[in-house]
Amino acid sequence: MSTSQAMLPAVRRPGTIMAALIATLVSVVAGVAAAVTVFSGGTNMVKSLLEDPDVQARLGLSDDLIQTAKQLGDDLFQQVLDQAYSTLAARAAFAVVLAGLLLVFALLARGGALWARIVITVLGVVAISLQLLVVTDVATSAMKLLGLLVVASTLVAVVLWWLPANGRYAKARKAQH
Fold first, then answer.
1. What stretches pass through the bilayer (predicted)?
2. Alpha carbons 168 and 13: distance in angstroms, whole number
């Protein structure tokens, strides 16, 4: 370490990085909670969704049509439930992977590194897109509420990660090394 580096004052991490980390953690927890809702609900959750008249209207179904499908054969109806659950489970699994990646890169971005903030932004856009799909598609109220929380907290996190203080902090840290 040179004499000029030793005389530099210690660089203090700005509060905006901690705020961004917290917002990212809220997004991660909400995304995982929404996925757990899907996994724990299983095909019974899909069955209850199909009993909702609003969901039926959205899907172009009627209660009579669903009852007819049940009468034609429980196997056929179960296949429909399994297919619908499969779609929801795939989205939930993708949300868990995104949440994990967001967590990893948020921890890596604590130093304000530009590359980590870029990755968080890209992952955030993907997470927001996925949750907007969940919120606007057939889902339980809990899934929609958690999806909206993911959208809001991810938007806040992305903005916080790009505040000027974080860039200055990253530059100051780089100058010290």
1. 88-107, 114-133, 145-163
2. 10
